[in-house]
């Protein structure tokens, strides 16, 4: 029996979760391989900050010395120096952008490939519990949403922080009293930006969940199968309304995310924009009471520095908000990277050279859930000699498919063991297991690619002659050759350009190319009509010659020639024998046969 599929959801994270420091360490670790390039960026940023703060001093010299004293030569040098600082800063900015964007894109690449590779190692059980759209959303939307953070935020933080420090130092050098006035409200601004960041982080988590739900709905309802089902069930309008509702919820979240803390951040900008006026007022008030505390040149230079301070300060606060928002995305990615790999390659994998193909089930127990009261399989003992055939039959939910999936390690036993040539499949390398076992299931999957590309998925270096030979063996060559583009014909999404029987034969041809010594046939003909079933069965018979074959049978007429037939009942082997032996015993197998075809059950 297969488990009921439920959507996987991560554990809730409390607001006082102690993990943020660990999360920061993990985020910083993503950039560690590129520390050399980031060091160069840091040096460029520092140089740019030093060059930038020289401009106000040059301006002071222009206003206080060069112009009042009519020193045209000095004025020319000072003006050229101001132009030179702008040119140098522009060059530094381009180099910073190039290096930081390259590093950011490499980090994005590393994250995407890490998540994809980790998901490739997850067991089949994970994918039965998780919607495909949810997985796609983590890779596309969540990682994509972090692009601006990982490509520009690090540089922006360093650049703005350096600019702030350099500006403060220069302002103190000009006049420490005006500097104190300028920085009085800075702690309040930092506190406000942190509050806004936490608020946006929470909304971003909700938005990404809604994006995942909408991606799942699109993936399910706009696939070929989804369109067929929606139209034949008259649910197209209903699906459109559901999608409209989801899109509307996403739009609301986008507005909330955009407006969260907007007034507070704008208040900061208003106050900072008003600060030059405050400085002019303070300087004017002191001048009204006596001698001015600073010269006009110093005052203009200070205000210029102050503007140079406020711009990076606002940017730094905004970047801090963006970083806090991105933490929600990093958290969702790390949740996937932290998923336990239930079926992994052994530490010291066994590699088999020539594989004979003897398969044994030795006291096999299996549960989908550790808390499952009754095992799906219990105490199964079976032996299929190399080149032999076993048919597994039984009522729906008796554990037939589960039993067959234990051989290629799509699931791992919870008790006993399954062996190939005497070696526990859990000890075999994945490469050996892939070479040893081929699976042809009822639900055939074909990529949206050409026939040749679909076949070569089993053997990328297969020649044209090998493709044709495999297709002939699967009784599908004539059909493919008759197509206008032959083996270059696109099969369409999930192979919808071909009939069910043609898709099955293409899947068989793909398996023939793989040439596995052990073959699993999971109800490969149960969904086909009689004439198509006969054509596919001929291809299966060709494929099974000389191979160890385990057939999960829905139609008992297809298993009469098997060397052994195992009847499963509630996960246990109730009967075992040949067709004739089981028919003579007049037990469960005979009862199943009578229900399928009373005429067939009479004759041995």
Automatic annotation (TrEMBL):
Region (Disordered): 1-20
Domain ABC transmembrane type-1: 40-325
Any one GO MF annotation of this record: ATP binding
Membrane-topology annotation of the record: Multi-pass membrane protein
PROSITE patterns with a match to the protein in the record: ABC_TM1F (PS50929), ABC_TRANSPORTER_1 (PS00211), ABC_TRANSPORTER_2 (PS50893)
Protein localization: Cell membrane
Record protein name field: ABC transporter ATP-binding protein
Keywords: ATP-binding, Membrane, Nucleotide-binding, Transmembrane, Transmembrane helix
Matching SUPFAM superfamilies: ABC transporter transmembrane region, P-loop containing nucleoside triphosphate hydrolases
Naturally occurring in which organism (per UniProt): Kitasatospora misakiensis
